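Data's thin. Show one?
=====
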Amino acid sequence: MVPAMLAVLAVTIGCESVSGPEEEPNPSGRVVAWFNGLGSTVDLYFPDADSLVIQAYNTGNAPNDIAYLGDDMIGVVNSSTGTLSVYNLSSTGGSYAEIEFSLGSNPYCLDCHQSNIYVTLLMSGKVAVIDRHSWEIEDTFDVSPNPSGIAIVDDELFVSHANWPDSTFQGGITVVSASAGNTLDTIATPINTLTADYFPETGSIHAVATTYAGDGTISIVDPGTRSITATVPTGGSPTTPTMLGSGRFAAGDGWSSNLVYLYGEDGNVSSTWDCGHNVMGVASFGSDTLYMTGWNEDLVYVGLSSTQTILDSLASGDAPQGIICIDRPPGDGGMLNAK
């Protein structure tokens, strides 16, 4: 456990600390938020008001993950810039806070639990711990090399590992104490396990692995027993999944094909949907309606997974990628539905 002080990490904070679009209020109610990988922006869609806000926020270079942080805030980690950008969903404009990591650390994924945000630092082999109220870095944990994805269950961090930059460490998941930072266990998921996401509705973690050679899998992990209960053989290069409801899940295959994988936690792919678009990210409010980012077309598609039909498309910035649905009540605040 390494204190996050001095030359290790630095933090800057301030309302509207990074320039962005002119500040304007956003509609209330549910929101679909996605980042644009080449455009370095975040777009927002409010389905209840049928309102689309293009370039609601500017991000750093190479945004890589997006998550809901509570209190109507979302966060985006920027791999190249080495920052975490925080935005208040109540309005467009500049960032609410900017957390800066050490040069070259490559923040990769993030998750939020209670009062802390946890960010994997791919190049430095650490997980940074950020206080959600002060927006200051409280600590960093040393973990195994190539930390990429992260899922939090109670007081345990499930950190997945890629096979780069340290090629001697191939993958898997490390279980780390969220309070103490020590390693508790390891789980032997496949090579290059890029992401890990916890679904409280079923109590399972879905860990995506691929070497981009048509060998993609999604491991269903029981966090209580720290074991793999099923393996979904998707093939291709699956991206971060979402829950559709009734035990059904979906994952895109944007790096390899135009497929969307529809699967269950029993390890079976129920069907593959050739939607005609390279789907980089998927998100849902826990229903049959699926929001899918089309990297090449600069569009976000709205479809029905049960009938495998596209209903609509939404304009976006350059190369839409990661996407989340946040089930906000009409007033302030919100609850995370899907990462």
Summary: The longest strand covers residues 183-191. The chain is about 0% helix and 55% strand.
